[in-house]
Design brief:
The chain is an alpha/beta fold. It is built from eight helices and ten strands. Strands 1, 2, 3, 4, 5, 6, 7, 8, 9 and 10 form a ten-stranded mixed beta sheet that branches. Strand 2 (31-37), helix 2 and strand 3 form a beta-alpha-beta unit.
Amino acid sequence: MKISLVTICFNSKATIEDTLKSVLNQNYTNYEYVIKDGGSTDGTIDIIKKYEKKFKGKLKLIIGKDKGIYDAMNIGIKNTTGDIIGILNSDDILANENTFKLVVDNIKDYDGIFSNLFIKDYETMSKIVRRLVSKKGNYKLGWYPPHPTLYLKREVYERYGYFDITYKIAADYDFMVRILKNGVKLNYINTELVYMRANGVSTNGLKGYKKSFDESIRALKNNKIKFPYLVNIIRTFKVLFQTLRK
């Protein structure tokens, strides 16, 4: 099966090289790598082009303005051709050289796959600062898989659509609730597929938390989930309990 990996970036010079190296390091070679850049001016594009030849035709770079993070993700996904689609943030890295092989080996009888999420320090990505142990759960009770670890078969996007760009923070949550309520079967593997850098829009203080909370309520309402406020409170506590400090 062919894996399509999508990375979106904008002025990611400080981190994009680590991301690129983690993809180049993969043992599984049947993949394509689509990078959607929003028009970086800090040298990000130069770094990508420096590595482009090393991908031997597997890397496709799309440069141009977009309407934000989720619009960029949609553009990237729509430019893929693989059987399985994953998203890797421009400041994150694949966990090890076997990530793609793990995905292919464990997704066969499912619509998608997800794993635990390990979060590392921003500066060096050498120290684990948090572990999010996901397991399986009920989306009606606030459970959802860590989006950075989620790989889905192409037909999931074709059947249920892409990210709703009216959300600024919670479009990934809206998308996951949408596919889960429609019975998409996900396989959980008790390992890590990606290391996330300790940073992000939705974690920027109280203001960011409130916006994330409000958008999550809207996502639950739009997907006709009963008792959205209660579900979102439960979801918040679940994340706190799932997240273990080293």
